[in-house]
Amino acid sequence: MRKHDKRNRRKFSIGRLSVYLFLFIAAIVSLFPFYWMFVMATRPSAAYNSIPPTLTPGNMLVENFKKVLSQIDFFGGMWNSFILCFVVTIIVLLISSLAGFAFAKFRFPGRNIFFIAILVTMIIPPQLGLIPQYFLISKIGLLDTLQGVMIVSFLNPLGIFLMRQYISEGVPDELIEAAKLDGCSNFRIYWGIVLPIILPAFATLGIIVFTAVWGEFLWQFTVLRDPEMYTIQVALAQLGNTHNIDFGMILSGVFWATVPLLVIFLLFNRLFISSITEGSVK
Known about the structure:
With about 280 residues, this protein is an all-alpha fold. The protein folds into 2 domains: about 15-65; about 70-280, MetI-like fold (Orthogonal Bundle), CATH 1.10.3720.10. Helix content is about 75%, strand content about 0%. The two termini are about 35 Å apart. Pfam families: BPD_transp_1.
C-alpha cells in the first residue's frame, strides 16, 4: 500500500512539475515581446539591428519618449482612444447583454434564425465592409469624427454569443419566473436580477472589446484625417512616415500606448478569471 502511494506521489509530482514547466516556458515566450519592446524603447535606433541582439535595458526611455512628444500629439491620441474605447465598450456591453438575455430566456418566432444570422456575420472579413461603411459614414456626415469610428462597432456578434451562453447557463429560469410573478417588467428583471449575476462576463467581454478597439487601426485610419481627431494607433503610424526611421522612438511610443491595456486588465482581472473559471465549471 505504501509503495503504491509513493508511486502515485511520484507520478503526480512529475506530472505537476511538467505542467508548471510548460506554463513557465509559455509565460516567458508570451512576455518576451513586451520585454524586448521595453528594451528597444530604452535604446538608440541602432540597437534594433545589432548582432547579437540587445537584451538589457538602456537609459534612453525618457529621451525617446520626448522625441515621440515632439513628433505627434501623443496624449491627445491617448485621450481620443480612451473616449472611443470607453463609449464602444459600454454600448457593446449594454446591447450584447440585452440581446443575449432575449435570445437566452425569451421565446419568439425566428429566434434561432436571428441568432444564427448574427453568428454568421463573424465569419465575414471586416475588410469586405470597409468601402460600403465608408460611403455610409460619409453620407451621414460622420467622416473624420470619433462617432463615425464608433458606430460600426456597436453590434458585436461575439459579445451577443458570449452573453447568450452565460445567461442561459448562469441565470435560472425559476428566478425569472418568480420575478415575473412578483410583477417585475422584463427590463426590471434584466437590471435587478440578470445584470448582477453576469458581472464576471461583463468584465471578460469588456476587456476583449476594449483591447480590440484600442488596437484596431484600419478603420480608424480610413475615417480619421484631422490630426486632432487621431487615435493613438493612427498617431503612432505617423512616426514611421520618415526616411530615417527611429526604432527607439517608435517602440517607446508603442510601449507607453500599451500601458493602459495592462492597467485595465489588472483592474478587472479578478472578474475576468472568475468568468472563465465559472464557465469551465458549468
